Amino acid sequence: MTLAISRGPIVEPRTVQIAILGTGMGGLGMAAKLRRAGIDSFVILEKASDIGGTWRDNHYPGSGCDVPSHLYSFSFEPKLDWSRKFAKQPEIHDYQQQLTRKYGLRPFIHFNTEVTECRFDEATGLWNITTSTGEKFTANLVVSALGQLNRPAFPKIEGMENFKGASFHSARWNHDYDLTGKNVCVIGNGASAIQFVPEIVDKVKKLTIFQRSANWVVPKADRPYTDTEKRMFKRFPFLVKLHRWMIYLGLERNFLAFKQGSFFSKLFEKAGRKELEKYVADPKLRETLTPDYPAGCKRVLISNDWYPAITRPNCETVTSPIARITEDAVVTRDGVSHPADAIIFSTGFESTHFLAPMKVTGLNGRDINDAWRDGAEAHRGVAVSGFPNFFMLYGPNTNLGHNSIIFMLECQIDYILQAVETLKNPKLRWLDVRAIAEKEFNKELQKDMQSTVWAAGCSSWYKNEAGKVTNNWSSYTAKYWWQMRYLDLDEYSFVG
Ligand code: NAP
Fold it and tell me: Are residues 120 and 191 in the same domain?
């Protein structure tokens, strides 16, 4: 559709001032794409003192990606020399640093600057941005790239404030504390725990894992790339493209396994059971470790060293719920006291409270939490009606269980770039997604969701307290790409 704006004298396109919030993969990708488009009128506001988002924060031992490396990089900035099939955190963080250097992004970044509030001013059509440093910014357009997994979640356990030993969250690992020879209690057994437990099990005296639910664990087809492979990738970059496509198609096919009751989901479960049989000889422990929900309802974990680690003689999996924490132990409801020199909380993130604790106020002084009182949602995961020129990366319903988030981010970045181009028109002040478009989109999305395993009866970080799946995309990523390939101005109202 073309814009119907009254004709007048030709005016120069205006400069759109953009504020990007966060320097994780989303924020960096957005900034790099703006630079590629020749747009320099932006700032990036980052609460920490370094770039990287989740890949800066999650530096626990063994931290790495469970999406293949060549698909965990931007298509416009491929890395030809990934060292292994599934990269570890330092290499991914290094990729982010390279991206920052190549696109000269540092001068655009305001470090140690947490955004506390974004308030839209109808009179000027600008977003007023307040930060923790007291510095204020104004922008025509805001791109929030805060992600879904940036705020560690801690359980509320009686007596935890009395604990005298060391305690920290896996996403804020304390490398100064030496775990050697210590009694270590790990609360949680999700994607993070499964990576660091095998790294620490041999050095600690006793490792006690508190499991609330079992997880489906399947093998990880990981290995280093050979020198020949790396040389070939460097010499013939099209091979990287081809490799990337093969990975993408393979993962995309995996979506079939996330359909409730599908043949492929049974295959996943079969693979999970086979792993258990391979590594866990004790039938009682095997039963303890067998999930009671369909594979994929919670994130399927991939690892080759989790079961070998938790079956070590110095490792115990405890399923009795935690009753309280004392000065030096974790006590479970069955009355057993588990000695603890250190407690590691691997209890995930505040995933469903999008944008929190930032305050976002749109048209007519409306708070975004009011728009989201029944659970967060957005038009195509990026825009919310009543919040003009405010876009999100990795927003509601854009997380995946089967493919690379980088692919989703690229769809979103290109979509937002179209909004930026549209807003260059000096007669346009803002774009606001129509409530009806947002509603229709989410109606279809939630309908699709009903046939997926995410809607099945397990608790997960994909759902809010009311059971609404607010985090995951409900279909193939190809469907998302198709819907995001152009910004349909029919879906937006615009004010000039
Ligand atoms: P998570 O998957 O949400 O796991 C949290 C764990 O803590 C679960 O086992 C949960 O049990 C348990 N837990 C939470 N509250 C508890 C309580 N009050 N008492 C006892 N146990 C409690 O968190 P995560 O392991 O940090 O991973 C989060 C996400 O980060 C992943 O799903 C993934 O998307 C991402 N991640 C990705 C990678 C990667 O390789 N790309 C690596 C790490 C993390 P329940 O299951 O019963 O709730």
Answer: no
Final residue belonging to a domain, choices 287, 315, 345: 345
Tell whether ligand 1 has an atom less than 6 A from the beta carbon of residue 187: yes
Q: Is 83 found in the same domain as 167? A: no
Same domain membership, residue 371 and residue 308: no
Phi, psi of 208 (to 5 degrees): -115, 120
Based on the domain organization, do 80 and 125 belong to the same domain? yes
Residues 82 and 180 in one domain: no
Ligand 1 site-directed mutation target among 289, 347, 349, most atoms within 8 Å of CB: 347
Nearest-angstrom CA–CA distance, 304 and 302: 7
Atom number, ligand 1, closest to the C-alpha of residue 64: 40
Q: Which of 65, 192, 209, 210 to mutate to test the pocket of ligand 1 (most atoms within 8 A of CB)?
A: 192
Is the shortest distance between the CB of 155 and ligand 1 below 6 Å? yes
Query: With a 6 A CB cut-off, is 139 part of the ligand 1 pocket?
Result: no
Both 28 and 165 in one domain: the answer is no
CA of 244 to the centre of ligand 1 (A): 28
Count of domains observed in the chain: 2
- Could you read off the pLDDT tens digit of each residue along the chain, which spans 496 residues? 333 333 444 556 667 799 999 999 999 999 999 999 999 999 999 999 999 999 999 999 999 999 999 999 999 999 999 999 999 999 999 999 999 999 999 999 999 999 999 999 999 999 999 999 999 999 999 999 999 999 999 999 999 999 999 999 999 999 999 999 999 999 999 999 999 999 999 999 999 999 999 999 999 999 999 999 999 999 999 999 999 999 999 999 999 999 998 998 899 899 999 999 999 999 999 999 999 999 999 999 999 999 999 999 999 999 999 999 999 999 999 999 999 999 999 999 999 999 999 999 999 999 999 999 999 999 999 999 999 999 999 999 999 999 999 999 999 999 999 999 999 998 899 999 999 999 999 999 999 999 999 988 788 999 999 999 999 999 999 999 999 999 999 999 988 7
Q: Are residues 316 and 388 in the same domain?
A: no
Q: Are the beta carbons of 293 and 489 closer than 8 angstroms?
A: no
Residue 240 belongs to a domain: no
Q: What's the gap in Å between 413 CA and the centre of ligand 1?
A: 28
Same domain flag for 412 and 436:
yes
338 lines ligand 1 (CB under 6 A): no
Q: Is the CB of 149 under 6 A from ligand 1?
A: yes
Q: Which long-range contacts (CB under 8 A, 24 or more apart) does 453-458 make?
A: 453/258, 453/259, 453/260, 453/265, 453/294, 453/295, 453/296, 453/297, 454/258, 454/296, 454/297, 454/401, 455/260, 456/260, 456/293, 456/294, 456/297, 457/293, 457/297, 458/213, 458/293, 458/294, 458/297, 458/298
What range defines the domain where residue 129 resides? Answer: 14-150+351-495
- The answer to the question of residue 491 being in a domain is yes
- Taking the model in full, what pTM does it have? 0.95
Residue whose Cα lies nearest atom 2 of ligand 1: it is: 190
Query: Do 62 and 428 meet the contact criterion of CB atoms below 8 Å apart?
Result: no
